[in-house]
Amino acid sequence: MNILILGSGGREHAFAWKLAQSNICDQLFVAPGNAGTAQVATNVPLNPEDFDQIKQFVLQNQIKLVLVGPEVPLVQGIKDYFREDEALQSVYLIGPDRRAAALEGSKDFAKYFMQKYQIPTATYRTFELHTLEEGLLYLTTLQPPFVLKADGLAAGKGVIIVENLHEAQQHLREMLQEQKFGAASTKVLIEEFLRGIEVSVFVLTDGHGYKILPEAKDYKRIGEGDTGPNTGGMGAVSPVPFADQEFMEKVKSRIIQPTMQGLQAEKMDYSGFIFFGLINVQGEPYVIEYNIRMGDPETQVVMPRLLSDFGEMLWATAQKRLAAFELLIKDQITATTVLVSGGYPGKYEKGKEISHLDILSEDVIPFHAGTIQKNNTILTDGGRVMSITAQGDTLEEVMQKCQKAANLIQFEGKYFRKDIGQDLLHQS
Ligand code: AMP
Ligand code: GLY
Fold first, then answer.
1. DSSP labels for 154-216?
2. pLDDT digits 0-9 by tens, 273-306
3. pLDDT by residue (tens digit) across 34-48?
4. Could you say which ligand is closest to the alpha carbon of residue 289?
5. Whose CA is nearest to atom 2 of ligand 2?
6. Which residues partner with 193 through β-bridges?
7. Who lines ligand 2 at CB under 6 A?
8. Which residues pair with 388 in a beta bridge?
9. CA 145 to CA 125: how far, in whole Å?
10. Ligand closest in space to the Cα of 161
11. Which tens digits make up the pLDDT trace of 339-357?
């Protein structure tokens, strides 16, 4: 069958890399893709948010399955568009509908859902401009650090954590009065701070059955030792030693199952990935956030750990027979290190030539993110440029492979964290 992936990051390259190996995939397209997806699929210059354009392409190319990478088209209702269009009835789109996508699109809704279905999460209150004074007062009743979150999508930047009460109050004013994050901060959540280690748990569901994919730890800060501003993600490791059987049983019974029951009780049309952003507080899992898609760079460690055919798994999802699908997972330790443009996550330049990709050893997978091919040259085209994945029997060995490759690849301004996985070394 012909498959179309929407998106252009490292996550989409990892999807494409895995789907290119699928027994059921004939032609594979990525829209718009990057220089890496072009090596395993055909890139098509479509905007994932232009649904009419995607429809035309899907019909002209007999696409049977559409896999949506990023959250924005889902929050904008691409699933509803496909469901309601008569010409698209035989095409299957992996992803939740707009109502379910609000689990990521609105943090206020996600919290309401978690409360309703008794899913453990930080206590919170939501404020709007007309309740600003109450919000300022509420902050005075809390202990630092203070956690403030814009309700809507803010490209990962909508969360502010500060120690100082006056600073927190100032942020609340700026978010509500000056719409610091645009419409995304029309509502602001103030949350209890949870202290613990984070882990990302992924589920693929067809609305009834589900499969738990390998979990991963993401490294969000730009600087080594988890310092400096937040980024989209600087690296990831899977498996995560503390996510042992006992912890995962708690995740399943207290978080995954009640979430699935909630989705069914709310009659949400959810087929696709659920990304549980969890925090382990002294052995007890809490939900920090839901995402309605796979993570980036987590996908770059999850896909290489799947032994099963990913195309068949998606097709089982489309046909609502996922519960009976046999998911096989490779035990090997897997890590990815992200190479970024100098200046990221602030201002950075694009168009720098990337060299030495041809001398990488066979035991690393260079997933592309912000790259573009011009003539015979691959150029940087984004903040996160590449994500180098390696596998092995020990974390030390895997970290070494990632770093060796990250050192070999050259482009002006290249930066990467050398400590991805370091904190887990003594836990495994
Ligand atoms: P979010 O976009 O909700 O995932 O928040 C971004 C990051 O802020 C998370 O990955 C956590 O590191 C941190 N964070 C968010 N909420 C909390 C909380 N209630 N307690 C502690 N840290 C938090
Ligand atoms: N790596 C975190 C995310 O994809 O949201």
1. -TT--EEEES-HHHHHHHHHHHHHS-TTGGGGSSEEEE----SEEEEEEEEE-SS-EEEPPPB
2. 999 999 999 999 999 999 999 999 999 999 999 9
3. 999 999 999 999 999
4. 1
5. 295
6. none
7. 218, 233, 291, 295-296, 298
8. 337, 366
9. 16
10. 1
11. 999 999 999 999 999 999 9
